[in-house]
Amino acid sequence: MDKVDLRAERRDLYAPKPGAFSIVEVPAFGFLAVDGRGDPNTAPEYASAVAALYAASYAAKFLSKGELGRDYVVLPLEGLWRSEGHDFSDRAAWGWTMMIRQPDWLDTAMLGEALRRAGAKGHAAVELRVQDYEEGLSVQTLHLGGYDAEAPTIARLHDEFLPAEGLEETGDHHEIYLSDPRRVAPEKLRTILRQPVRRRPA
Predict the structure, then answer these.
(1) What is the 3-state secondary structure (H, E, C) of the chain?
(2) pTM reported for the whole predicted model
């Protein structure tokens, strides 16, 4: 059975160049998602959310493989981040949506069964959901290094690139985690930084 890597089908979205901003059009994708608040480094809610997401995503993978004969690589963890007034200095006040994209051949019933199986394995307290998310026009880049070192790149995006291109932000700051921080040194982490935007009115 061949194993599909959905990232390879959209390298424009999953393989941006480090240090360079690119403008992309992101279509609607289906996700398993969960909302929360607090510092991701210390909040137990965050750790529980991520563990539940992976449990449900691997349950979906096994269902796809067993019932549909279609295997695939589980897609990376993603996060939407928000803070009052875009002030991210107080981590405890961060709001977030953590999510993992799912293949479009998995219907709502199968994803619902994946959620049920994750709940049966000890994750019932986490309010996972199935949702579609469409960012549309966005700007992204690949950040190499630790999460705490992202600020200069994000500032350059908002203060230099967006004004120069006649763009303005429209939604949450979005990160796609291509590396596992439990196994990769901070300086070698690879993270896609993405910001949905719109053309500024003339």
Answers:
(1) CCEECHHHHCHHHHCCCECCCEEEEEEEEEEEEEEEECCCCCCHHHHHHHHHHHHHHHHHHHHHHHHHCCEECCCCEEEEEECHHHCCCCHHHCEEEEEEEECCCCCHHHHHHHHHHHHHHHHCCCCCEEEEEEEEEEEEEEEECCHHHCHHHHHHHHHHHHHHHCEEECCCEEEEECCCCCCCCHHHCEEEEEEEEEECCC
(2) 0.94
User: d(Cα 27, Cα 135) in Å, to the nearest integer?
Assistant: 7
**Least confident among 25-34, 81-90, 102-111, 134-143:** 81-90
CB half-sphere exposure, 141, CA atoms < 13 A: 18
